[in-house]
Amino acid sequence: MNPHTSSWDSNVLDGQLHRNVTKYSNFLQKLSTSSQVDKLSQLIKRERSEQLQSLDQFIEEAQTKHNSAIRKLELQRTDLTSTLSQYHSAVSVISDSNVVAKTINYDISTIDVEDKLIKKTLDFVSHVKKLKNNISVVHGALESKNYILAAKSIQEIRNVPKEILESEFAKKTVPSSEIPEEPSVLLDIWCEQFSELLRTNFLNAAKSQDVQQLTMMFKMFPMVGQDSLGLDLYSKYVCDIIAEESRKVVTGDIKKNGVFARALFHLFRIVSTIINDHSKIISSCYGVNHMIHVMEKVEKEADLQGGLVLDMFTETRKVDRFVKEITEWFSKRESIDNQDEKNNIDSDDDTRYDSDDINDNEENNSTVIGANELSNLVNEFSEMLKTWSMYAKFFSARWYEFSNIKDVDCLVPPPPILDGRFTLKLKNDNVATNFETLIMFSLNKAFTKSLLLEELPSLNNLITLKSVKHDEVSSYPISSVLEDTALLIRENLMLTVNTGQYQIFSHFLDQLAKFYQNEFLVKFLQSKFKNLQPKLTVSLALKKYVPTGASPSNSNVNSRGISPSITESYASAKLSQLGFNFRGAAANALTNFQTNLQSVVSDEEAVLAFHHFLIYINTLSLSRRFVHKLLSIEILTERPNLLRCNFPFEDNAQQLITKVNACEDLMVKQNNKLQKWAVKFLFENIVSKRIRTITTNCFINGNDNNYVSGADDFEVMPGMNEFVKKWKQNMIPFQNILYDDAYTELLTLIVEYIIKIVEQRIWLLKVNELGATKLDRELSLFIQTICWFNYTLREKFTRLTQIVLILGFDDDNFDVTTGDIKEELVSSIKWVLSPQDRIEARNLKIDKRQ
User: Fold this and answer.
1) CA 486 to CA 626: how far, in whole Å?
2) What is the DSSP code (8-state) at residue 430?
3) Within the chain, which residues score under 50 in pLDDT?
4) Which residue from 848, 697, 677, 846 is spatially nearest to 758, judged by alpha carbons?
5) Is 580 helix (H, G, I), strand (E, B) or coil?
6) What is the pLDDT of residue 493?
7) Rounded Cα distance, 615 and 479, in Å
8) Residue 460 carries which DSSP code?
9) HSE (CB half, 13 Å, CA atoms) of 629?
10) Residue 821 near residue 813 (C-beta atoms within 8 A)
11) Phi, psi (5° rounding) for residue 814?
12) Cα separation values, 411 from 119, 318, 408, 644, Å
């Protein structure tokens, strides 16, 4: 067969036979001669021969494959027969093993049952034997009064299972001729007798203060099943100790300062010590869960004794009387303030908070309670509340520890604290309200005193053309009242925080914000500003204060650099208003003859008033820093766990943290309002005129608004050099005196004012190309002189700098059609100028191409 000839099965699958038949049919239709028939016959024979050969080959190959497959199947059958044989053998072995295993399991189960029965019998016999031996031991120990041995044996008898103790076997085998009673009956008799014996011995040991005997008796109560009796006796014993120790402390000199705070502290320290030390004995002998029972009993006695101490404190220190008088004083003061406010509104006169008012207030305060007595009372009151808070926290933590309650999300006062008599007494007797009244009166009283003792520093050493570097905040000139007020607020904050009472500290923060706004900002600082306003005139300059008849070198009047007190300055002002200003009469007649006199205030009085005005602005500005330090830094930042330690219950600490931040925000907000007003007054009435004067010659290069520069005058900038000189002369003293925040606020107003002036001037200029370059240099120097490194203020000049930038562009940078700059420049810079502004700015150039 031709190797290229397809196999028979391939031809069949490929349809070759069908094609051949079709071909033959076509040839038959075309036959016309015999020779064609012969050729067709030969073709058919040849192809038939080929097909037969292919078929034989296919059959041969198929037969070979079939025989091979049969041989493989035979081999697999042989392997399967072997496997089946092995499987049957294994099944037989497993079946035999199963029979053996069942037999073994039955034997083991039988042995286990017998073993359990034997052990049960052994345990029963052992318990009976132990019961008989312990009964004998107890009988002998009671006769020899060996109570410890007897109690231990009774405890072992009580540990015998009840079914064994009351079994028939025990009833028959345990009793003897010497001890004929049944075990269960005998145990009840002994427990009852032993309980009474222990009770008697415990009470006798308590009377004789025999701690060793007392402890021994206390340990034996649970051995005889009298846990409750032992705990009750122990609780009563401890309560007696607490009451006795409380009487010892309170019976001392009750007039001595702090005696009640020490008494309460000693009382709760005893209770805490008892809970700590005796919990070990109770836990080991009775179980830790029994501590709850003892703590409830002890807390009732602690509440009782603590209430007595609080009552004695309230009565001895006359708290109720003082609170009543202080409340009346606050009411009277509020009515007077309301009347004054009404009168001021009707008469359109400024409220004055001068020395006369302060003296009147001080006199009224002294009729209520003395300063030392008030301070001692508040401190002792705070210590007592602090002691209670510390004890409540300790008691609550130990309560949950002994209750085996773990992973408490937030500490909650347990019932003995929450519903205790001392807690209810604090609420019913308005203790928190009384303390709040005392603390606010103390703050107001001390603040009034600080107003009387106010001192203002001299500014003369800061009024210089040389910049003064302030290394510390305290080097800035401020009123002494601010420092005193900060100390007072800090002291009272600590007193209220230390109480650990959420209500007290929360209410104090509310009252503190009101006090800061009403007393410090309005009645003190705002009144000072308003009283100084009439003395500040537009022509007033910031210069050194030299009192009449004193040389400039002796202008500071004392070692602390304090200028004459504010009270003296006000007194001199009043004298001048009444015509007693002798220096003013001569000076005005000879040197300052004017038709428009500056009221009746002398020049040195006006200068002093100006100094004081700046000092009070500093006081305002720095008071924000003091408030932030007192509230956020000292309470929250430097001591982050202060509130959480003092206010551990529930989420009180987090609520107070939020309230501290809110209190600070409110105080700073009110402070900022007054500071903005004061700085704005300073700017509008004194600074703005000088700023307009020193900027008069700026950005002027010739006449008629022409800013055409040539090579000869390009480097000449007399107007700008003059501005730099005068700016330093006028502003360096302000920078030396004012705190950064206040100076920045003043500088912001100046910048906004200057920008309006300069922009109006630039829009009127006619500039050539060289003039534009010179204008850019002058503007850069101008901005640098004013802002220095304050980049926030520099951004306010963006509009001016962009106008000058437009003037410096080449003509090729502008679109001929629109007149505006080309698109690529528009997208490359963040413009604040509108397209029309840019077109107008370009039109300022006189040498541009049309």
Assistant:
1) 7
2) T
3) 1-5, 345-360, 362-366, 557-601
4) 697
5) coil
6) 95
7) 7
8) G
9) 11
10) yes
11) -110, 145
12) 51, 35, 7, 11
